Amino acid sequence: MYDIAAFGRMIADQGRMGAYSRALQRSIAHGSTVLDIGAGTGILSLLACQYGARKVYAVEPSSAIAIAEEAARANGFADRMECIQALSTDIRLPQKADVIISDLRGVLPLFQQHLPSIVDARSRLLQPGGNLIPKRDVLWAAVVETPRSYDQLMKPWERERFDLNMAAASQIVKNVWKEGRVTPDQLLTKPYRWATIDYLTVESPDVSGEMTFQVERPGTGHGFVLWFDAVLEEGIGFSNAPGQPELIYSSGFFPWSSPVTLDPADAVSVDLRADLVGSDYVWSWETRVHGKDPGQLKAHFRQSTFFGAPLSPTQLRKRGGRYQPALREDGE
Questions:
Q1: DSSP states of 233-272 as a string?
Q2: Residues 121-131 pLDDT 10s
Q3: What is the domain partition of the chain in residue ranges?
Q4: Closest CA to 143 of 35, 254, 44
Q5: Which of 6, 31, 230, 308 is least enclosed, having the fewest CB within 10 Å?
């Protein structure tokens, strides 16, 4: 859940806000009904009113909706902008929307209940032939040389400072991905399009695909980086790709279990999948690095965020089929 300062940083992101503003201007006709999912403090709902929408429903589960409501009154839109504190999946509207606008992404579009929320809103709350903003997100990946990002994950658990064995933690951090920015000169391969999320047609929240990269220059591979190009309307969008202007969205760095020395003749295959389990995603990535000689396998890693969090004996007991909860002395 975002705090007010985080909503402010999203508004201050000129690349993001400029694109959303242009997409709204193109999509809204006089008299349109607009649904804003995850409205936050209401900036997109306010712009929809400013651009001529007849009715705007601003839907936000957090208390940030109180800011949106005050802003609607302050800008003279209280008669056209209705603020609803709820999840979009829990609401009913008296009329279907001509336009649904949202930005429910995290660092990447595959974030918590983003896709289920869009699928639900599209099927229940959008007029036939209505418009969705964004239209689609295209996810790209490339093998990367980023010793700084890798060391930030791995170095704290090495012996070199206190000569203590912290291998238990290092096995966990090898199975997590982290937010991180890289530059184009850190890429060791050309980008590969992993997946396209078409919000007009997507049904499943799960995404998977295999990628094959050809190493283009010698270097040390530390993993791969994942980013997305957002298409809000045709010809209107933004990207957090390496080398693009910095946005509030970073990219995702997926480390390998150990660095690999790569040569231009090497081929790298990555089977990447993201599965929504409960309220969040489990990411899994299996990597094979093939050398120039036939049959030469330089590295093979299997990693998953499923193994990226510690489980204490107490937690494991609670998950067991024979676990019986008991009241504490205070009655809880």
A1: ETTEEEE--TTSPP-S--EEEEEEEEEEEE-TT-EEEEEE
A2: 999 999 999 99
A3: 4-133, 137-311
A4: 254
A5: 31
CA distances from 249 to 73, 197, 239 (A): 30, 17, 9
Amino acid symbol at 239 = S
Q: Alpha-carbon distance 197 to 199, whole Å?
A: 6
**Range 137-311 classified under CATH 2.70.160.11:** yes
pLDDT tens readout for residues 32-90: 999 999 999 999 999 999 999 999 999 999 999 999 999 999 999 999 999 999 999 99
- Distance (Å, rounded) from C-alpha 291 to C-alpha 127? 54
The strand pair at 55-59 and 81-84 is best described as parallel
Count CB-CB contacts under 10 A for residue 297. 9
List residues bridging with 55 in a β-sheet.
Answer: 33
pTM across the whole model: 0.91
Task: Give the DSSP letter of residue 132.
Answer: E
Coil, strand or helix at 151: helix
What CATH number belongs to 4-133?
3.40.50.150
Closest CA to 142 of 261, 211, 224, 64: 224
